[in-house]
Amino acid sequence: MFDIAYVGNHGVDQPSNYNLNASTSIGADVQGQPQYLPFGRKANTELRYVGYSSMYNGLQLKLDKKFAGGLALTTAYTFSKAMGYQSEDSFLQFFINPRRNWQRLNFDRTHFFVQSYVYELPFGKGKQYLRSGPASRILGGWQLNGVLQIASGAPLGNNGATVAFSTNAAGLKAPGNQNTLNHFGPIHVLYGNGFGHPWFDNTKCSAAITTDCFAQPAPLQFGNLGPNVIDGPGYWNLDASLFRNFKIGEQWNLQIRGEAFSVVNTPQWGQPNTDYTSANFGLITTLANMLPGGLGGGARQIQLGAKLTF
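-> structure tokens emitted (310 positions)
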């Protein structure tokens, strides 16, 4: 069976984390905070129910195929894009120009592929081979299962702490607002990992360089780099299991199972550092944490179990 579908939604008046005391003008410093002059308040005043919108569009493909030999496959692929003013774990970042918050959401992954399978080995009673005798009792009743997930990288968001490619927002003199870096020329993604191997070209501008480099914005200016404009490392994971079913009388069935999560034990890299002031700017120095469908960092985990049904 083959299915193809377009899925889309448009969120309206979604609860957002809004700072009522964020400055609304560049350079005014605390004088630009709405609650400073009447109340002398400099701290944030958070309102969580100011409505903003979001949008999701996705093309979904799915293929289910069952074979006569006991093999069943399910193949799924999604091509999608999620946009909004804030991710679910973050705050609005720009209050002087709210439209600047419109961006790819932190969880967005353009491509997501899933391949799952169930294979009943063709041995034992009622199967194609070795239907009787000692070999049938030893090799019969086994079943292989697995799920493979492959996804492109998520944007370089920062879990709501700051905007990706963050820089010191103090130069704006606009409390409550964040800022981004300047970048001149196209951004080159190098796909490196580890010390000395940046994920993207992390060259910092100097007097002699005017293209393909990052720089702090001038005082009282926003940087020209938007949030979430580069993807981090992709993700892939394979889980596998082996089951053995034993028939006990007419009503009882015992299943012995061994399962391996992240069976290939391959490291899954975290996001690169996007803090311009850090010595690790552009470098990946951590493993991923709790990616969908797998364990943090890609570490293998094996478990054994038994299930009795009647």
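Helices lie at 36-39, 133-139.
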